[in-house]
Design brief:
Layout: H1 3-15, H2 20-32, H3 39-48, H4 52-63, H5 67-77, H6 83-96, H7 107-110, H8 115-128, H9 134-142, H10 150-162, H11 168-174, H12 180-194, H13 200-219
Amino acid sequence: MPKQDTDTIRAFQGLEDSRSSVRLRAALAVGTTPDPRFIDKLIERCAIEPEFYVRDMLTWALTRHSASMTVPVLLNEVRSERAQARSQALHTLSKIGDRQAWPAITRALLSDADDEVARSAWRAAVVLVPEGEEPELAAVLSTQLGRGERETQLSLSRALIALGEVILPTLRAAMTDLDPRVREHAIATERLLRDPDAGFEFAIEEAKRVVALGRISQEG
């Protein structure tokens, strides 16, 4: 058997090894010497790989292959019933940066019930959004304000801020929302847009005080 075929078999086996260190080395090897035969296997592993560092290496390995071969397969994967498959496919598309993938970033993905999928969709959206469509994207993202715990909220704020000043009208509208969590998140996001060094924790706590004082003054 030619050495190349032996290496291929070894890499395929390595990607399925029970030891994460072996899977990591196998993904590194595949990315170092890209081979289209590995694309399906890499994407399949992304959907089930439990270790973050290995998933990251699998994504890197995919980015080393031709986008014309990886993007169509990844676009199928974003429709998977498995949340991790959707999340990792979106994450990989954001790293590849091919704007032909933009139509796949649907409102359904941007509001996916799974926080990890939604966060990956937000990051992918701000990378792939065509010029001129940022305000529309900001409007869709704003529907997720107030969602989840700190980590999820920070991800959304970062995505919105990446769109720039176009988010301001949307944030201002959200500041009058009936839900105090939405108002707080909008205020904190605007603060971070104005002062990136403020820190999210500080911004959100300050926003809570603003919302509370606003309520008190209205009651008074």
